[in-house]
Design goal:
Blueprint: H1 3-28, E1 44-49, H2 60-63, H3 65-79, E2 84-87, H4 102-111, E3 144-146, H5 158-169, E4 173-175, E5 180-186, E6 189-194, H6 196-201, H7 205-218, E7 223-228, H8 246-261, E8 267-270, E9 276-280, E10 289-293, E11 309-313, E12 316-324, E13 331-339, E14 351-358, E15 364-365
Parallel strand pairs: 1-2, 2-3, 3-4, 6-7, 7-8, 8-10
Antiparallel strand pairs: 1-12, 5-6, 9-10, 9-11, 12-13, 13-14, 14-15
Helix pairs in contact: 7-8
Length: 366
């Protein structure tokens, strides 16, 4: 055999082996179980991620980051079932959800990546059901709580389509287009959802503040989680936000409302930054811990680290919240998980890269 021909056959063999491996991994997406990394039974658990709605590229099942994270979410849920899924906004890039692409984007950005979690019993679910390979799993139906991000507001019809029309396709999709919405998700756990984009527009701040103060005061607690698309403790370039910046003013708004409400807030979760971060709060009032899980479909480099950061990584992934124990033994466990950049590179479950625990009094420890 001539040397050139031998090299040619060798290259073809190598490419063929890579193709077989790629097909094997793609076929296995969503089937690897997460390891048993918990030493307690949670009374309530929630999976959290944001900035998920990137339009998929060609060969999405091998190269789309949202599907890599979605597969890890499914594996984590199989190993340790969660009670709810929370999406932190920017559900549809780049200009929100539009009527002319409604079905395509619901299939692409909700049903396909989160097949395990979607309830397809809505009046129009048949139009998107085929995006679930083999049909959706059938654990107990859990709510999918969703927030609006800045990109979700860029088309006028997007907020109302996400609130009023998406539930016809995905029956457990729950999105309020009120600036502040309170959800008592479990006995003793209050979730307060905040539309940060509208607050940052500063169109009606006194009314928005009154709504947030009322929601906090009326929340049952003792556990309170504030959720928004934009972070309040981290600036757009990382680090502490400048007081005069949009993020600085948003943080001031939240802290003032918490102080006026006079109730403890243990956790603030946000997206917007395409990264995984955990930042310990400063002096009261304000949340004891700030978590950013905005890398549900893509990540970006971290320019500056926050001085109180307990973890920061420019990786795809998600967060998990687990409440366990009672009385003085009660605690909230916050876990951050990193996912592979592409489904093609995914092997096994997501890596648990950070674990922080919060007490009802706001003490944070590892």
């Amino acid at each position: 055999m001539k040397p050139g021909r031998a090299i040619g056959w060798g290259a073809r063999g190598f490419m063929g082996a890579c193709l077989v491996l790629a097909l094997f991994r793609i076929a296995a997406i969503g089937h690897g179980d997460a390891p048993d990394h918990f030493d307690h039974d949670a009374a309530f658990s929630m999976l959290v991620l944001g900035d998920t709605g990137k339009r998929h590229r060609a060969f999405a099942r091998g190269f789309e980051g949202q599907l890599s994270v979605g597969a890890d979410l499914a594996a984590e849920d199989r190993a340790h079932p969660a009670d709810a899924l929370l999406l932190l906004g920017d559900n549809f890039y780049m200009r929100g959800l539009r009527a002319e692409e409604l079905v395509e984007r619901i299939r692409m950005n909700i049903v396909l990546p989160y097949c395990r979690f979607v309830d397809l019993t809505g009046p129009r679910s048949e139009e998107v059901a085929s995006a679930c390979p083999g049909g959706p799993a059938k654990p107990p139906v859990r709510p999918i709580f969703a927030l609006l991000g800045n990109h979700d507001h860029l088309t006028r019809e997007s907020p109302s389509l996400q609130r009023d029309v998406v539930p016809a396709y995905v029956a457990n999709w729950k999105l309020s287009t009120d600036v502040v919405a309170r959800r008592e998700v479990a006995n003793g756990i209050s979730l307060i959802l905040v539309d940060s984009t509208r607050i940052e527009s500063e169109q009606d701040l006194p009314a928005y503040r009154e709504a947030l103060v009322s929601a906090l005061r009326e929340s049952a607690g003792p556990w309170r989680v504030l959720a928004a698309h934009a972070a309040m403790a981290v600036g757009d370039n990382g680090g502490i936000p400048v007081a005069e910046s949009v993020r600085g003013r948003f943080g001031t708004f939240i802290r003032a409302a918490v102080a006026e409400a006079g109730v403890p807030v243990q956790l603030f979760v946000a997206g917007h930054h395409h990264s995984l971060q955990a930042v310990e709060g400063s002096e009261p009032p304000g949340p004891a811990l700030h978590v950013i899980a905005g890398s549900g479909s893509r990540s970006r480099p971290l320019r500056t680290l926050h001085p109180r950061a307990r973890h920061a990584s420019a990786s795809l992934g998600f967060a998990r919240l687990d409440w366990a124990g009672e009385g003085q033994q009660a605690q909230l466990t916050v876990s951050l998980f990193e996912s592979a950049s592409w489904p093609l590179l995914r092997w096994g479950a997501a890596e648990r890269v950070a674990v922080l625990r919060v007490t009802p009094d706001g003490d944070v420890f590892e």
